[in-house]
Design goal:
91 residues, alpha+beta, Thrombin, subunit H, 1 helix, globular
């Protein structure tokens, strides 16, 4: 069974990412990281989990996909930095 799970992208590299989840995952080995802002869907494997934080390895070698994901992450971080603290999303 799969279900959407909102998360916060903490780190991203060419081979994977570290994600903060709203709640821990149970028994999940594979996932699809969707970055809505740039319409990306990246298949990945969950390689570690500590409480509500997971590490994933991308199952694709598409450098353009990873470049777009990193660009979306930079855009989000810049937007958050420019947003007044009173309007910042609560995590």
């Amino acid at each position: 069974m799969s279900y959407p799970e909102n998360c916060v992208l903490l780190d991203i590299s060419e081979t994977g990412a570290r994600l903060l989840l709203q709640r821990p995952l149970d028994g999940c080995e594979k996932a699809e990281l969707t970055i809505v802002e740039c319409d990306l869907r990246i298949p990945c494997e969950i390689v570690w989990q500590q409480a509500d934080t997971i590490g994933v390895r991308f199952l694709v070698g598409d450098e353009e996909t990873v470049r777009q994901a990193r660009a979306a992450d930079r855009l989000d971080r810049a937007r958050d930095a420019a947003m007044p603290e009173s309007e910042a999303p609560k995590t």
